[in-house]
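URGENT: need a sanity check before tomorrow's submission.

F., can you look over the OmpA/MotB domain protein record below? I want to be sure the sequence and structure line up before it goes out.
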Amino acid sequence: MPFLAVALLWTCVATGCSQNPYLAGGGTSVWQPPPSTTAVNGIQAQVAELNRRVQLLDDNNRQLTTQLAQSEQQSQVYRDELNLVRKQLSDTTQQYESARIAAQDAQTQARSFQASAQMRGGATIRANTNLNQMAGRLNLGGLKVEQDGEVLRVVLPSDQLFAQGTGQLQPSAGAILDPTAAQLRSVFPRQRIGIEGYTDNAPMYGGAAGSAHQLTSAQTGAVLDWLTRRSGMPEQQLFTVAQGSNNPRQDNTTPAGRAANRRIELVIYPESF
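Structure tokens as predicted:
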């Protein structure tokens, strides 16, 4: 046995122990086994999971982008609907205002007719049945004076009083209204007088008047103000009626016809006040 051990030792020295793969030699690295199949599969699974998450985030991003675009479109729809509702509200408000003024005019007219009827039946008011005879005393220049049943009508062309389409009296209107008022005060100092406003059927564009009734209401109000404040006629003698485009005198299809329909009529009643 001692001889065998010595022989093995001698063989190891002769051949060199550095050839043993399990021993570290001069300048050589430690041997490591290759990755196992389990480790590789684990890494691949992690990569696959990360890719899945990236794809999911990308899908979510596209969905959010689509939802944002849809929300912006829906917001625009809401804004358009809101603008439409606002316009409808504005139109309704204008229609309401026109209807309100027309109702007021109708009430004023009804009150005037009621007062006229009461005058006919009242014992304290005397009816004047000689209007036609008294009309011969009027000196109104070129203004038209007409007998209409029991009343007299003095026709004043609106184009000579107002800027067309407005209730603003022109500076030259006094040259017509003042002498007319003077004649009425002289010849009919106690007769009830209605100020009736008429216009053509042309559409209303711009200006303060939104309808024919609003326009004629403004015009009759301006004449009433002039006759009472500037010409000294008693307020209780006068009342106004806005007729709008009702009761045209001529056909509205011609300029001359439309001009004839734009008018103020001073209606002299047989009743006194």
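My own read: The domain at 101-272 is CATH 3.30.1330.60 (60s Ribosomal Protein L30; Chain: A;). The two ends are 165 Å apart (CA to CA). If you see anything odd, call me.
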